[in-house]
Amino acid sequence: MNITNKAIIITGASGGIGQETARILAKSGAKLMLTARRENVLQQLQSELTDAGATAIIHTGDVTVEADCRAIVAATVEAFGTVDVLVNNAGYGPPVSLLETTEEIWDATIDSCLKSAYLMTRAAVPHMLENGGGTVVNISSVAGKYGYADRTAYCAAKWGMQGFTEALRDELGGQGIRAYTVNPGAVATPWWGATNDAQPDEIMAKMIQPEEVAEAVDWSLTQPERIQIDEVMLKTFRSPWE
């Protein structure tokens, strides 16, 4: 599949994996809708990409809110005519033990990781179907395949994303909708420095880098349509996520 001029939405595009995915897909010629809550960061990224000759627009919003998701998709269709690819990258998951996981933390984790993917997918898929098909890429985690201590809410959300993706593929695969997950282990994003799992530089260097996840997304999108991708796994050394 050639993604040149394909209309691609990337959620959580204001940092880490989302930013790097935008940079990689822009180099491949995609037309990008970048969405997150931090408008100033999105504007900086948009300027960087457009200065390099890419096509990128932004729309701030909260992807845990249905009205915002519909507005993001509507703005994409208005600008580009359709939605070809949706990359559900937004997510949140602090390292908290079960007994310290409040209802607020649980809800925020499930909403940001799983509800957001459901809302964005439900808003985007009708446009994909009208255009003969499309692709949903859900950025999940090895925590969607294995359970880890102090990650009960995050694991529940990512296991849910795995089931959601498989059900979506079974339901709409015959109508031209491709759906799969990208499941990285520990990724060296600024998020690690802002949690109790803050790691020294030498450990961060051994982790999967955000651009490597972005390259996996780009690779998956450029495979022939006759090849079915169920999931892409990225693992490095033994880490709390493996």
Structure, explained:
- The chain is of the alpha/beta class and 242 residues long.
- 46% of the residues lie in helices and 16% in strands.
- It has eight helices and seven strands; from the N terminus they run βαβαβαβαβαβαααβ.
- It has a seven-stranded parallel sheet, with helices on both faces.
- The mean pLDDT is 92.
Task: Offer a concise description of the structure.
The chain has 242 residues and is of the alpha/beta class. It has helices at residues 16-27, 39-51, 66-80, 103-130, 152-172, 190-193, 201-206, 210-221, and strands spanning 7-11, 31-36, 55-60, 85-88, 134-139, 177-184, 231-234.
Q: Whole-Å distance between the termini? A: 31 Å
**What number is the mean pLDDT?**
92
The number of E-state strands comes to 7
Element string (H = helix, E = strand): EHEHEHEHEHEHHHE
The portion of residues forming beta strands comes to 15-25%
In order across it, which strands form the biggest sheet?
Answer: 3-2-1-4-5-6-7
Query: Can you tell me the overall shape?
Result: globular
**Considering DSSP H and I runs of 4 or more, what fraction of the residues is helical?**
40-55%
In angstroms, what is the radius of gyration?
Answer: 17 Å
Largest sheet composition: 7 strands, parallel
Structure classification: alpha/beta
